[in-house]
Amino acid sequence: MTYCVAMCLADGLVFASDSRTNAGVDHIATFKKLHVFHQEGERVLVLQSAGNLATTQSVISLLSARIRTQQEPNLMQVTSLYDAAMLIGKTLLEVIQRDSSNQQTCSNTNFNCNLLLGGQIAGETHRLFHIYPEGNFIEATRDTPYFQIGESKYGKPIIDRVLTIDTPLEQAMCCALISIDSTLRSNLSVGLPLDTLLYRSGSFSAGQHRITDSDPYFNRIRKAWSEGLLHTFQTLPTWTPAEREEE
Q1: 3-101+108-230 domain in CATH 3.60.20.10?
Q2: Banded pLDDT at 109 (limits 50, 70, 90)
């Protein structure tokens, strides 16, 4: 399984993904789930994936090949994030339909995957989309400025409590990492290392950062969060059963 989270905020975008895949306890591996398509000074497209690994790799390979061979349309030619989401959705559906053509002989195989696409193309603001296996998609809004895919339930509460459209990017990244840490503690199918990217609107810079189990900042905030939760819990009023009224 996996967990990816992306946030679309006033100042830019935040992305964080784990890197664990598993097909049972004897088949655990590390695969990157955050991919960047970058044209200096003109566009940054970030793609995160959760679901069938073969489907994901095929989609990334097709998108990359179409750029390399200058096939039209491709991600370096589209003029908006919406058009990029359309192209990726069509490519995803193409791969799923191709690979599921043998579904009759592989009835238990699930070829689906979900994708998060965020970034910016010159001439428009930064945007974030959730692309579904069917090829359709939705866009993040001011009221719902983030998306999750994969094992989302464990890391959702912290985001809902602290994140707003005006949250500074650095604080949002901290929130994303705590969200992933909560998932790491509750689900063994999600694991380190983590891949992160903080994108400041208008910068067209795509610097990535990989977080391992020895990362000092990650270890400091996960320790502080755990200790803070425990301290707050211990200071809550003690539950006292109400006295039963005399009959």
Answers
A1: yes
A2: confident
The token duo for 232 is: 């707050």
In angstroms, the CA 189 to CA 39 distance is: 34
Determine the Cα–Cα distance for residues 135 and 86; give it in Å rounded to an integer.
8
Residue appearing with tokens 């592989």: 106
- CB burial of 61-89 (b: ≥16 within 10 Å; e: otherwise) equals ebbeebeeeeeeebbbebeebbebbbbbb
Is-cis flag, bond preceding 73, omega within 30? Answer: yes
Helix (H) or strand (E) holding 93: helix 81-99
Task: Report whether pLDDT(202) > 90.
Answer: yes
**Residue 228 DSSP symbol:** H
Please report the pLDDT score of residue 101 as a whole number. Answer: 85
Q: H/E element holding 219?
A: helix 216-234
Count CB atoms within 10 A of the CB of residue 207. Answer: 11
Whether residue 145 is preceded by a cis peptide bond, meaning omega within 30 degrees of 0, is no
Judge contact between 193 and 30, C-beta under 8 A.
yes
Q: Is the dihedral of CA 164, 37, 150, 179 positive or negative?
A: negative
Task: State residue 44's pLDDT score.
Answer: 99
Which residues make Cβ contacts (< 8 Å) with residue 88, sequence separation at least 6? 47, 59, 63, 75, 115, 117, 131
**Residue 23 scores a pLDDT above 70:** no
The percent of the chain in helix, strand and coil, each rounded to the nearest 5, is 35, 25, 40
pLDDT of residue 28: 77
Count other Cβ atoms within 10 Å, centred on residue 222: 18
